[in-house]
Write a structure and sequence with these properties.
Layout lengths: L22 H8 L21 E6 L2 E6 L2 E6 L2 E7 L17 H19 L11
Antiparallel strand pairs: 1-2, 2-3, 3-4
Length: 129
């Protein structure tokens, strides 16, 4: 996703989950951008960030974080799977294992995204002086 020939700061390969919404924070982090900004993603260069991927799936969402893939439909969790180990033949870990932090983070992300989208607060606006 990120490539800079000869730059030792960029690893050759990182298995951390990354998606399109991480591009802006990644570039700004790489450039040491000093100001605040709004982004739903996070920098893949942040060593404390484990990486998160969210995808719209039919009528629900899929949230991948901290070794789990959580499927949400409406407000309910429909499945929890080990990720990436359980990808070829998924075995649902719900209800015996429900990683509450991943579930809460997924629900919070969906709520923030929907609010920002509905209130038209996703775009940067120049402040008129």
């Amino acid at each position: 996703m990120f490539y800079a020939p000869g730059d030792s700061l960029l690893p050759a390969f990182d298995s951390k989950p990354v998606q399109q919404i991480d591009i802006l924070p990644g570039i700004l982090d790489y450039l040491n951008y000093p100001d605040t900004f709004f982004a739903l993603g996070s920098s893949p260069f942040d060593p404390e960030e484990t990486g998160v991927v969210i995808q719209k799936m039919n009528e629900g969402y899929q949230w991948i974080s901290k070794g789990f893939r959580v499927e949400f439909f409406a407000d309910s969790v429909r499945g929890v799977y080990a990720f990436p180990h359980d990808s070829p033949e998924p075995q649902d870990l719900l209800p015996e294992r429900s990683p509450e932090d991943a579930v809460q983070a997924g629900k919070a992300f969906i709520q923030v995204f929907n609010h920002a989208l509905l209130e038209d607060k996703m775009a940067w606006r120049r402040i008129q002086k």
